[in-house]
Design brief:
This protein is an alpha+beta fold. The protein contains 16 helices and 19 strands. Strands 11, 12, 13, 16 and 17 form a five-stranded antiparallel sheet that branches. A hairpin with a 2-residue loop joins strand 6 and strand 7.
Length: about 550
């Protein structure tokens, strides 16, 4: 999931002058009241809230509230724990038997059965449905028939999925994938009710899931209201009456509403407010490590960035960035300079290695200038770093990155920021491969495995490989790692694949991002999970 793509944008239906409030603010939204409703800052999702079509964080927040899958990632540790799964068995890491718990229903009363999962996965995988996360089903046998690389599908469903009985189904993979069960907490693998298929338009206008909340109403550009589902089956029931997600154009405005008492929760404290946040909020400010890395994506579809010379230029640009200075001054230590392409939250056993990037991530202006010159200079003569301009944070650090590069190259016009109006426009341009140069990318892990920091981003034609990087050796090592049943050996293979990413500088790592949030005095028990998403169901209203 493209984490750290925290978009806060809005399109007000009418302009009303209110003192120090935004479209999302206002007297009636002040947080909570007797109804126990939590108000939180948000941004409109890029796509409709189909589980297999949501790969950015704003939509992911909603899916995390209205769906529960076979696994759920522990909000404190990130460990994949059984949720709807009674058990998942395999003897060969290729054939899996899934038994689901009895008694679960969707919020419309439909029973959750094995068919709910099989139908949802087949829908998510099929080419005709154009789901952004279709790639996640790529290891299931028959995926190539429903989602061929070219041409039209020759099957409607994947041969690797079979319903055995209402509470049992089997999964056959097209190769060994020892950690497959640990991926099944990701939203793309959520079950879907029959109503999703019978009246798709109605479902999209008001999604129905099986999680602790149900969608009450949604007005794009304004807010989404979710209410506690009283009949929810799980043991992680909502501790509040509901959540109102308010759309903001600017997270500075959201922060102002928070401090003015018009909002309960901001889950992305803007960089410009970090120097004030301790004084403003005291112990109601959260700053905690998260599975997020920020990088500069590279448009490999532009020939100027390809080949050995392109790799030299990319490495030189990486060495021209003074990460420590930027994280200290702009981000007030809520970011840590990146030393690899994963996240420290994985730990050494999980694959994090703070020596992997080495010199390529070390500030060295002289060597940077030399490498860029040896590579033939910046493609096109000027580095245009694209970012979405609808939040208060990105311009500052992009300008700082460019200043660092310009100073290192002794050219005050070598690097400039290229703002794109909204997050939606920015993502659309990226998806259409229209970036004029490197672009802001942020990755929030879908599940706490090193595989998730590498394969979706750098594997050939992967779902989030926005720059179209492709390397046969990388792909081969990832395939070998996925097939390796021994966890330690699998991690070592993934690290070898990551070394290919380093040698090719497939993306320029910038920094690891902490989760940051602030909340009002009306709420308590507020925390962020390892994905930097608020644990909404645990928030209590006073």
């Amino acid at each position: 999931m493209r984490g750290a793509t925290h978009a806060k944008w809005t399109a007000c239906a009418a302009v009303v002058v209110l003192a120090a409030t935004a479209c999302g603010g206002g007297g009636d939204s002040g947080g909570s009241g007797a109804d126990g409703i939590v108000s939180s800052s948000w941004g409109d999702p890029q796509n409709p809230l189909e589980p297999a079509n949501t790969n950015e964080v704003q939509g992911g927040k909603v899916l995390d509230m209205i769906f529960r899958g076979l696994k759920r990632y522990d909000p404190k540790t990130g460990e994949a724990k059984d949720m709807l799964a009674e058990k998942i068995d395999t003897t060969d890491s290729t054939n899996f038997t899934v038994k689901i718990k009895d008694g679960w229903t969707f919020s419309n009363g439909e029973k959750v059965t094995s068919k709910s999962f099989v139908d949802a996965w087949n829908y998510g995988a099929h080419l005709k449905n154009n789901q952004k996360n279709a790639y996640f089903f790529g290891y299931i046998e028959g995926y190539d028939k429903v989602h061929p690389e070219s041409g039209t599908p020759t099957a409607e469903t994947m041969s690797g999925l079979k319903v055995v009985d209402p509470l049992t189904f089997t999964v056959k993979l097209n190769q060994k994938f020892s950690t497959f069960p640990e991926t099944l907490g990701y939203a793309a693998f959520a079950p879907l009710p029959e109503s999703f298929f019978k009246d798709h338009a109605a479902w999209l206008s008001k999604p129905v899931g099986n999680g602790p909340y149900s969608v009450d109403a949604y007005t794009k550009g304004s807010q989404m209201q979710l209410k506690k589902w009283a009949d929810y089956k799980g043991d992680d029931k909502a501790q509040n009456g509901g959540v109102t997600l308010k759309v903001y154009t600017d997270n500075n405005t959201a922060y102002t509403d928070l401090t003015a008492g018009n909002l309960d929760l901001v889950d992305d404290v803007p960089a410009s407010q970090l120097k004030n946040v301790k004084n403003d909020l005291g112990d109601r400010y959260i700053n905690t490590p998260a599975g997020i890395i920020q990088t500069l994506g590279i448009p490999f579809y532009d020939q100027g960035w390809q080949g050995e010379n392109g790799a030299k230029v990319r490495k030189g640009l990486s060495m021209a960035i003074n990460r420590q200075q930027i994280t200290d001054t702009i981000f007030q230590k809520t970011r840590t300079p990146a030393k690899d392409w994963t996240s420290p939250v994985l730990g050494a056993e999980g694959g994090y290695k703070d020596t992997l990037c080495g010199d390529a991530c070390t500030f060295n202006p002289a060597e940077a200038k030399k490498l860029v010159a040896e590579g033939g200079g910046i493609p096109g003569g000027q580095l245009k770093v694209s970012y979405n301009a609808d939040t208060g944070s990105h311009k500052e650090w992009v300008d700082a990155v460019c200043n660092s590069i310009n100073n290192a190259l002794d050219n005050d016009k070598a690097c400039v920021g290229n703002p794109v109006g909204t997050f939606a426009d920015f993502r659309n341009q990226i998806g259409q491969h229209k970036m004029p140069g490197p672009f802001r990318t942020g990755w929030q892990m879908d599940y706490p495995l090193i595989q998730n920091f590498l394969q979706p981003l750098y594997y050939t034609n992967a779902s989030s490989n926005d720059g179209q990087f492709s390397n046969p050796q990388f792909d081969k090592l990832v395939d070998q790692a996925n097939a390796e049943p021994d966890t330690k050996k699998a991690v070592e293979l993934f690290q070898q694949a990551e070394e290919v990413v380093r040698d090719q500088m497939a993306a320029i790592p910038l920094w690891y991002q902490n989760g940051s949030a602030g909340y009002s005095s009306r709420v308590s028990n507020v925390s962020l999970n390892p994905f930097s998403v608020p644990v909404y169901n645990e928030i209590k209203v006073s």
